[in-house]
Amino acid sequence: MAAIVTFAEQREGRLRRSSLEAVSEARRLAGPLKATVATVVVGPKAAGLAPELASYGADRVHAFEDGGTYATETYAAALADVIAAAKPTAVFIPFTAMGKDMAPRVAAKVGAGLVSDCVALTLADGRLRARRPVYAGKAYATVAWEGDPQMATLRPNVFSLGTPDASRKAEVVAGPLAGSARARVIRVEASAGGKVELSEAQVIVSGGRGLRGPENFHLVTALGEAFGAAVGASRAVVDAGWVEHQMQVGQTGKTVSPTLYIACGISGAIQHLAGMSSSKCIVAINKDPDAPIFKVANYGIVGDVFEILPRLTAAAKAYFASK
Amino acid sequence: MKIVVCVEQVPDTETRIRVAPEGNRIVEQDLTWIVSPFDEFAIEAALRIKEQKGGEVVLVSLGPDRVQSALRTGLAMGADSALHVKDAAFEGSDTLAIARGLAAAIRTVAPVDLVLTGQQGVGGDHSQIPGLLAEMLDLPQVTVAVKLSVEDGKATVEREIEGARETWETALPAVISTQKGLNEPRYASLKGIMAAKKKPITVKDASALGLDPGALGPKTRVLALEMPAARPAVKMIEGDPETQARELMRLLHEEAQVI
C-alpha cells in the first residue's frame, strides 16, 4: 500500500499546530491516494505524542526518543531512513524554522524533488500538484514532481486542521535517535516578552515611515497589543534602524498571510505588498489617498496615524473587553 | 581560510513580475538583475572573515551569461576570484540540479573551510540550496544566521526561530546560510570596481565539473505561473478619527468577521 510520510515538530513536548496541519493534509489525500499515513516525531517522550498524531490521522508513528535539542543531521537521517524504508509517494514537512532547515538535507539524502512553502496541494491523475508563492507572492506557481517521493514543505497556518478523532489508534514504532551531529545548538533564548511570531500570527499590525520616527513606533505596538497581534514593519523603517530586522514584512523579510493585517503609515512599496497581500483582510491607514497600499486593502482610512492609532487602540480595547 | 560564497542573480525586488506567454516562467526582458540580497550578507560576512584572518574568497554562481555581472559585483566588493557554472543542461532545472552544479563547482576549489550563501534566493524563495549543498558536500550546516563568528576550526552562529534565538556551534568546514541582520553589506568602491575587471572569472560547464548533463533532469517542474487573484475594491471609511476608528471595528466584526 502506498504511504505518505509526515514530519511532526515538537518543542518542549508539545506538537506544533503546523505538524497537525501536515498530518491532516496527509489524511485528506490518503483516501484518494489509497495510502497510509506514517508520521515521524523526534524528542523526549516522543512516543507519548502518538495518540494526538493518531487522532489527526496518523496510522503509524515513528517515535525517535532524544533528550537533546534539534540537530539537523540526526533528525534528517532519522526521517530519511523512514522514507527509504517506507518508499512513500509523498512526504510533508511543515515550513517552520526547523522544517526549512531540515527538509533540503532529507531531499538530498533520498534524491527527492522538494517543493517549498506550498499553500495548496491538489491531485491530478493520482499525482500531486502544489501551489506555491514565488517572488514572495508577486506570482503563484503550480508545480508537479517527476517520480516519488513527492516531497513538500507546507506553509504553516494555511492547511486546515482535521477534526481529531480520539478513537483512532496508531501503530507506534519507538526507538532512540541514532548518530551524532557536527553542528549543535548550545543555547536557546526565548524572545523577550513572549512576542507573537509574525509568520504564525492571526493578526498583524505593521508600521511604516508614516510614524516619522522610532519614538512614535509605540503607537503601533500599543495597537498590536490591543488586538493581541504580532507587530511588523516596513523595510524602510527596518533599514532606518527603528525596529529589529526580524519584524520586517516583505520580499526580503517575512511573507505573511494572517486573517487580519493592519498597515499603519505604510505606503505600500512593491516588495512590501508582495509579502502581505495574501492576508485575508487588509486595513490601510495612510494620509496619502493615492498610496499603493489602498489598492490591496479591504478597508481604508485616509488620515493621520497620530490621530487614528490612539483612537483605534482605545476602540479595540473596548471591543475586546466587551467580549 | 578559503571561503566559497554561492551567489544567485535575481530580479530587483522593486520590479514588477510579468508571466511570459508560455505561462510557466517570467518575462526576463527589461528586468533589472541584482545579487540576491541574502547573498550580499554572505559576501560581506566572507570579506569580514578574510579581513580578520586572511585567506581567500571565491564566488560561485550558476546561470546564463548575465550572472557574470553579479559575480563582478561581488568581486568589486572584494572577493578574489569567481567560478561561473554555465550549461544549457541547467535551463529549466530545479533546486536539486542547481545544488549538484554548485556542489561540483565547490569541489574543484577544495579544500574549503567555509561555504556561505543566502538563506533563500529572492524570487524562487525555496530556501533549499544551503541544506542541499551541505548534504551533497557531507558538511554540517547552520541556516539563517544573524550572527557569526569563526575561530579555530569552528563557528558559532545565532539563528532566529519561532519565538526564540538559538546559538549553534559547528565544526568547520560547514555550510552557513545568511539572513538579514547579520551585517550591512558594503558598497563597491570605485577602486574595487576597477580592480574587479582584472579578477578572474572561470567558466565551467557540467562535463568540466564531472557531471553528466543528461542526469541533471529536474525532479520538479513548474507547470504554470499566475498572478495572484485580484483583491476586492477598497471600502474607504469616512468621518472624523473617532468615527473612523469605531466604524472600522464594527466592519471588522460584522462585515469581514475577522474579529
Summarize the structure.
The complex is a heterodimer of chains A (323) and B (259). Chain A is of the alpha/beta class.
Description of the structure:
The complex is a heterodimer of chains A (323) and B (259). With 323 residues, chain A is α/β, with parallel strands linked by helices. Helices cover 30% and strands 31% of the residues of chain A. Chain A folds into two domains: 2-176, Rossmann fold (3-Layer(aba) Sandwich); 192-321, TPP-binding domain (Rossmann fold), CATH 3.40.50. Chain A has helices at 17-33, 50-56, 72-86, 97-110, 218-227, 235-239, 270-276, 293-296, 305-321, and strands at residues 2-8, 10-11, 14-15, 35-43, 60-65, 90-94, 113-118, 120-124, 127-134, 139-145, 150-154, 171-176, 183-190, 203-207, 230-233, 260-264, 281-286, 299-302. The termini of chain A are far apart. The mean pLDDT of chain A is 95. In chain B, helix 2 crosses helix 5. Chain B starts with a strand and ends in a 5-residue tail after the last helix. Chain B has two domains: 2-216, HUPs (Rossmann fold, 3-Layer(aba) Sandwich), CATH 3.40.50; 231-259, no CATH class. Chain B has 259 residues and is an alpha/beta fold. In chain B, the strands form two sheets. In chain B, strands 9-8-7-10-6-1-4-5-11 form a nine-stranded mixed β-sheet, with helices on both faces. A two-stranded antiparallel ribbon of chain B has the order 2-3. At the A-B interface, helix 3, helix 4, strand 7, strand 9 and strand 10 of A face helix 3, helix 4, strand 7, strand 8 and strand 9 of B. Strand 18 (299-302) of chain A pairs parallel with strand 13 (235-236) of chain B.
